Sequence to fold (327 residues):
Amino acid sequence: MSGEEGALRPRTGRGLWAAAVIALALAGGYALLFTGSGARVGEPLAGAHATATAVRAAAPPKAPPAPALVVHARVGPSSAWAPVAYVHGAPAAWVSQRGGVTLMRFDQSLIELHLHAGSSDGGETGWRYGDQISPSEIHHVVAAVNGGFKLTYSEVGFLAGGHVAVPLSAGLGSIVTYANGLTNIGAWERGVPSAHERVFSVLQNQMLLVDRGAAAADVSSCVISCWGATIEGRESVARSGLGITADGMLVWAAGEQLLPSQLAGALVRAGAVRAIELDINPYWVAGYLYVHHRGGPAAVPMVPGQHGIAGMLLSPDARDFLTFVAR
Fold:
């Protein structure tokens, strides 16, 4: 009989009985007294109970589970990316301020985007995400920012959850969120949507501000007629935009005094390969982080000098907007 066969052969007779006795004795903390005829259970081991107690006492206590979402507002005028939100202990959102531009970056593996319809910008009732941060989002929201131009303007489109407020147009820059919660940005029917995913929402706003990692060719030569009418015809006004990086991060950028070229440049330097301009002018550009307390979230304005949105999107607002919510 080979060694392997012997090792695999089941024990029988006295060998099996002895093994069972040994196991029972050790489990009960007893000493084994060996005689020529085999093993028998003897006296309890004096230190067995004490040793087990000492091992239990030495084991470190289990740490309480990390909160599902932690958001803080430790933001300073630094060009470095500073983490401001953690989801299940992992960094999920970062903030940076560079040259008059506030940037917020979001990891889509931990955070998803929701498109909200405003109370007047929407045209229909019954939206899944309506004119304020919803009860389903309130304890999970990380940030919220303004949406696009009014839906009565040209070169816009709006669809969410099967409802169409403004029909979509081919070629327009589009923020496309799929039913799986992931978002992409591109030109409609020229890069988005994916043929393999079901579309849940689309916000269209003009042509792409950034494409293939470069600013649009007319960001400097066609400021007003190409990138939106401004108050008193000023070229440098509050502007905002949303981009996506090559690895799928979403990047929001905004500032109170920006040219289209400056907004596009900030998004490109932040790694955006495609981006669209969102709303402009001081009354409609705003971003908030939400620090969570026992009584609910408190909104923290993110753009220095921003005019802000009444109610900070925790109460009904007339315009569409975007929330970034922990998965």
About this structure: The two ends are 60 Å apart (CA to CA).
